[in-house]
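To whoever is covering the structure queue this week,

Two jobs came back overnight. Logging them here so there's a record in the thread.

Job A:
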Amino acid sequence: MKKVILSICMLLAAVTFASAQGGAAKRKAEIKEGLKNEVKLTDTQIESVLAIEDEFRPKMSAIKNDQALDEAGKKEKNKVVRQEKKEKMEAALGKEKAKEVDEFYSKLKKKKPADEKTEK
């Protein structure tokens, strides 16, 4: 009987851990789908956008986690990095499409907290 209960507990733990994985992959798939359907980007353009996002994400994260900077310093550095990112997006997509991508990500950020609350 103890073995059965232990086995069930182990199975439940494994299922819990397995279901908690894959959030980033799911999110990336949603972003790709949104860029394709809402912004009407080609697959090549989508890959460019994701590559630019992947390039700048660590920079933004490093600024966020930099203990040496105060809030004003972080805002200033983030502003510079965001401007670089914007210029790179415009070079890859053109001004109009880059603006649409930016609006898409803004909508996604506003939507994200509500989605996370319903999942928990």
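Job B:
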Amino acid sequence: MTPEINLLPKLTHKDEVKSYAPYVLIASIAMLVVAYFIYVYATAASSQTKLEAEEQNLAASLTEAQQTLTTLQAQNKGTLEEATSFVKANSYAVSPLMDEVTKQLPANTYLREYEFTDTTVTLTVDLETMRDVSFYIERLVMSDYFIDAQISTVNTFELGNKKDDKDPKRKFDFLPRYTVTITAVIDYAYLKGGAS
């Protein structure tokens, strides 16, 4: 009789289950990775179609804007002669206005600043007294170069160093000066044709 020798290890059901567990785990992880890649691909494809549609809309808007720009440029295209004639027709000499403004200034005054617009000149003038302010406004209104003159602001300031004197008698030794902002409306017809 021959002895029965079995060289193969004896497997139990418990050992078989343990041997399949790593394979099942790897397979499930692989399925999750594949599912994730499918989701990412679907999302990217959806985003790509949306972006392509938006790109087409923007390209159409750009084409429309370029056509509008070309049309507007063609309509507003003027010659150099037209531009020169427009400037000549709508410009005025500033020198007579400045001469008139400085000529009307009372004595001991200072023209601090001036600014021209199409229809007005804004002056900032330092004057000694309120009487000088009214006198200057009156002379501007009576001038042929201006239709009207209005005071915008009046501010006071003292000349020299400001000292904090406690003596009330010293307060009356200094008279404040006035900084006045005046807006004068230009008589364009007189300036253009009648001024000599």
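Note for Job B: The helical segments are 13-75, 80-90, 95-103, 130-142, 188-194.

Please reply-all if you pick these up so we don't duplicate work.
Q.
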